[in-house]
Write a structure and sequence with these properties.
This protein is an all-alpha fold. The protein has one domain. It is built from 3 helices and no strands. It starts with a helix and ends in a 12-residue tail after the last helix. The model has no long low-confidence stretch (mean pLDDT about 85).
Amino acid sequence: MTTNKALLALAMGLALAACSNQKQAENSAADAANSATEAQQAADNAAASGDQAAAGAAQQSADAAAQAANAASTSADAAANAGSMTNADQAADAAANNADAADQAKDAAQDASKAADATAPAADKTAPAKK
């Protein structure tokens, strides 16, 4: 009976670890998607500034963030469908790495957007005098 309880505890521990890997991968994919959204917003802001060089750099970064988010989502799916703990762990790690890449690309897009804002001409804040 003691051996059966030990095997049951081991099986439950493995199931819990598998759920943990899947949840980690899902969270990473969600983080990557948020980073991609923020990167695209930064690229849109850079494009609105009129600075074509900064807008191009920001858009490239936003595209990289979107690709990383897609890869994180694929890794999360792989973690959910992994046939072994090792595969689930590797897929969860890949999702986390892709989320980090998406975050770095978001930061680059935001930096480009800030550069575009810095070079944009200041808006004329004084209204002409009425005659």
